[in-house]
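Fresh eyes needed here. Have a critical look at this protein's tokenised backbone.
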Amino acid sequence: MTARTVLAFDCAGRALSVALGRGGGLLAARREERLRGHGERLFGLIEELLAETGLDYPDIDLIAVTRGPGSFTGLRIGLAAARGLALARGRPVFAATTFELAMAGVRSAQRLNRHIVALIDSKRQELFVQIQAASLDPADRQTAATPFAAAPEQLHDLLPPGQLLLCGDGAVAALEPLRSRGRDVQAPPETARLDARWLLPLAAAADLDRLPTVQPLYLRPPDVTLPKLRDTANGGEGGPGADK
């Protein structure tokens, strides 16, 4: 069986990253730090990778994308692009959470018998958290706790006792609060970078007959401002529920 060619991209965080791979290995990748404008650059980066590798859209067997949690706008951009490409090219989509993406970058840390804690920046005063408990049993290593949101100073009381390895773009924010409470914590700089290249081995190993849902994972409601209600009595704006 020919190794599948995967186009992967992540728009959920503080960077836009795109990768092309085959059989789980990397062919080419691009990554740009940016808080906004993911949609404006995504297809430009994809075109650059195709030109670099000599591939074209028909050569892509599988599209891989992150589905959250993360930036609401970024997630919508990434998922919409993945669905559009899948529809246009008749290709399946593999969707992974940003927790899975972060943990994929530190798989070797499991041998250190540390709890792996994926931390995603919520762009607020809290982090999105998922824990993979240390275990010598491969089945247990795949069992992650229910994700939750917490402020960095709350993590000490919410994480299991023992040695920790932090990953994800929220790792830096959690490092000092945990160390100040005496926790044994590692946070290698490379693990704090969410990168689409880590999607490649996950997508390459996926069962195409049992692909995960391609729906966004949100851990809190979006930040929205409701439109002001018009007060028909005086012709102005206001009324119950209006912004002040």
Notes: The radius of gyration is 20 Å.
